[in-house]
């Protein structure tokens, strides 16, 4: 149960973190390798404190982590949290597709029954 | 460009809508078929106005739509918005996996080069 609650909370903060275009772009940027806050700020017309705020949200959600090097503390991706969000969406998609498969089957059965008439 | 901006906004509101456990449960419930607000409220210890608020967020994000029947206005799933969120995560996952494939290849090349020494 604790695990389930943890997952729920983790999904909350993951989806919350993804609900912002700057944060999504930062994640996409980090996919190609770790980067400092200064490097991450470059493509955005945003102040360093502005970018830092977004990075803190991503870090709190467990989507990224920061290195211990005191001067730069480069950011890097932690894949697990996003994998949970992915699993939730896949589970939802699977149920949704199963529903349509059932509907297809029902329509086929209906057609076959009609053909026998 | 307009399309891209629309997608960005749509992703914002989709992820925002998914960042709440009640809203995720409502969506999972609607996967098995349409339901009225009263039916959706049943499993939750929440007031009808409370549930209605969540339903409005889902509706605004385009994740569900409501029927026109004046009395009940049943809720049903609209799959497109969630498909966009799914695509974003798949794209991210693909880039992430490609990065590890490149790393694997690099390590294999390194091993082969060492073998030749």
From TrEMBL, chains A, B:
Signal peptide: none
Taxonomic source organism: Leptospira ellinghausenii
Entry-linked NCBIfam families: HTH_metalloreg
InterPro entries according to UniProt: ArsR-like_HTH, HTH_ArsR_DNA-bd_dom, WH-like_DNA-bd_sf, WH_DNA-bd_sf
Domain named HTH arsR-type: residues: 4-97
Protein name (record): ArsR family transcriptional regulator
Molecular-function annotations in GO: DNA-binding transcription factor activity
Family matches, as SMART domains: HTH_ARSR
């Amino acid at each position: 149960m604790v695990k389930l609650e943890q997952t729920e909370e983790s999904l909350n903060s993951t989806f919350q973190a993804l609900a912002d275009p700057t944060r999504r772009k930062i994640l996409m940027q980090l996919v190609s390798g770790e980067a400092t806050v200064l490097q991450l700020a470059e493509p955005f017309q945003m102040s360093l404190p502005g970018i830092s705020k977004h990075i803190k949200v991503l870090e709190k959600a467990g989507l990224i982590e920061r290195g211990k090097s005191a001067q730069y503390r480069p950011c890097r991706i932690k894949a697990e949290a996003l994998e949970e969000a992915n699993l939730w969406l896949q589970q939802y998609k699977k149920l949704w597709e199963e529903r349509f498969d059932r509907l297809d089957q029902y329509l086929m059965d209906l057609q076959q029954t009609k053909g026998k008439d």
